[in-house]
Amino acid sequence: MPQQGVFTYPDIERVVFGTPFVDAVRTEADRLGKSRIYVLASGTLARETDCLSRLEAAMDGCIAGVFDRLRPHVQRDDVLEATAEARAADADLILTVGGGTPTDAAKMVCLCLANDTMRYEEVDKLRSISKPDGSILHPDLKAPTVRSIFVPTTLSAGEFAPGAGCTDSRAKMKQMFRHPLLAPQVVILDPEITTHTPEWLWLSTGVRAVDHVVEDLCSINLQPYVEGTARHALRLLASGLPRCKADPADLDARLDCQIGAWMSMIGGAAGVTKGASHGIGHMLGGTANVPHGYTSCVMLPSVLRWNQSVNGEQQAVVSETLGRTGEPAAQAVGDLIAGLDMPTRLQDVDVRKDQFQAIAEASMHDRWIPTNPRKITDPAQVVEILEMAW
Of 92, 115, 136, 367, whose Cβ has the fewest other Cβ atoms within 10 Å? Predict the structure, then answer.
């Protein structure tokens, strides 16, 4: 029987790449007819560079407010505070300038605005809940009417997805929220602005993008189109990241990485499922406060080793794409990560063994655990993977 599948194009109108972000934002805001723009920005960019002052000067009074106090892993309290400010400003567009935290926070603000969400407990009504069989229970949501433009400065590529992660600090768990219109109207890829991104953040989120494509290539439902885009994305990232490490001013290398990160999200649009590196990684962030990119650095090689017995042929494609034909994919990927001077073990990112059980139990609620190529049915198996990564 022929292979079957559905590719869903995300609700993104345009991707603008290689253009200075100030020029691109002005052009796109004019095209969309937006004049009350609320900005969610990286605190570092806001306080230590002139990026926002240049933007405000160019936008001729169209910036209705700026929120630059976001904490890592998108905390509910921060989202509600930013939502209240955007509501008070009567914002007609949410603009982000920064990494994955502003990106996911902006999606949450759009969702909260649309659903009149004002209190901490009300956010629960917006959650998507992963069930033990791998299905996802989505709530009945009002569609966002205030949309977004994203100017990413890292490589985790969440700007291309219609989902957001947000941490319930009371439960110490990162939770998922999803609506097709949480995807932005426009993504602007400007390599120059990324030169302000700390090296560890740029490179580690690049490994996050590598994680996207490696888990796609090893997925239980890989599609032919995705295999092609994932392999090219992996080539771009595996070449571009070391070049960025060698010369942080290499804008061609940075744009290669940005395009590789963009292409790393094609699998998600096609419904290609991820595995335990993503599933456990989500919980390392919310439960153990591990930075988003570092979760992939410390988990992906061990997950590959744990899965190798069931998807060795697919892992061989990863090795071949990395120019390491015949070698274990875990070794090839691990060497790429180590060559970037990224952490490679859980102990390198201050995860303690006494946290393993809590991480494992939380991971069982993530949507990507049921779709891991080697079946995971018990938290003890997650602990086994964590022990391998220790």
Answer: 136
